[in-house]
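Dear support,

I submitted the protein below through the web form. The confirmation email said the job was done, but the results page showed an empty box. After a refresh the structure appeared. I'm attaching both so you can tell me whether what I see now is the final result or a partial one.
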Amino acid sequence: MSTDNFKVVVLGGGPVGLTAAHALSRAGIDFVLLETRPTIVVNAGASLVLLPSGQRMLGQLGLLEEINRLSTPLGKVQRFDHQGNDIGDFHFFVRMKENHGFDPRVISRYDLTSLLFSTLPAEAQSALHPNKKVSSITTTSTAITARCSDGTSYTGDLLIGADGAHSLARAFIAPTAPTHPFLTTFRILWFRFPTPPSSNLFSPGTATETHGPGCAIQAFSAADHCAVGLYERLPSPTRERVRFTPEEETEVVRRWAHLPISPGLTVGKAYAARIQAGLADLEEGVVEEWIGERTVLVGDAAHKFTPSTGAGWNTGMEDVVVLVNELVRRMKAAVGVMGVAELREVGRVYQEARFTTVVGDCELAGRMTRLATWGSGVTRFLDRWFMGSQRVQRFLIDKGAQAVARTPVLEFVEVGKMEGGRVPWVGRENI
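What the results page shows now:
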């Protein structure tokens, strides 16, 4: 089957949606992308960590040079307790570099989305439509249509829901399922502040974590700013969606203002110098149904977990790669137009390939957040003495190295050879 008469509607223009735009464009598949916000690139949101798997895929797209310019490599993570005592450094990022050849890197959401947008071909950029709030999704025997509140509508053969944790695409797939399927046990106060001048505490690439009862902090320093995430355990888990007020954000800061981000720098002092900030729930979970009638979910629409392991965009990127690979494979083998049954089979193979991995990623992220917030004497002991051991850290990272090496890549994109580490990449030998 030719790609000429096939069209995809993508909901969501965040990093995962833009990754889908790149993959579909490279595959020669026509698409349209609908984003609720007034512009595709918005200077807002927390920073992201690019893991080796994500960088490998960005290398396929020819973006590594720009990524290296816009992001900052991360090394060891200095860890402290609430009193500022040293509880042992993390060397996870260092070991990842040794295993896979890529430094994990920190990048602002703005810089990543700007890069993904600006490097799309002009024709693909013209397919991105901001300020499009989708109000309904309908299907016929031959197509799926997204209707927007401004009266416009967009029709295709397949709809990809990259529209986040509160996904309209997910509600279309499972209209009787809970509106808010993810469980929230933690919320995050995130903010960015300028890197203190003439300071060795936050030179580019510096990373710190503060652990203790009820609250943990992660901080990553780029060239000109430091990104902070403060994880606070809620009094009890909830499935309700909450929109926080500025007063609630101020109260979280007041409660933890005394905690050290690094020696000599507290949460209160850093927050007072903030460039941007926000307070949000950290939903966790993996929904059971990722596929419906001409519809499939990727990224946060299908699974959501805490940012403790930095896996967010990287996992959504892997979803896109597996889905588009399977779509291209089926289109090449198909005779005539692919119908509902064939598209559902594409989705089934995709979900089956990703589900177990994503569940494991979700559990790992939650486990790391719970260890860092010391919910019991056991977690405190494990975090201080077990996770603080470099021997244990090497064992844990090396245990997962083969899974990282098997991270999927686009099967239809040719690239030059990339340098690896001690664990060879699996799949496409030239990447």
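Response: this is the final, complete result; the empty box was a page-load delay. The two ends are 28 Å apart (CA to CA).
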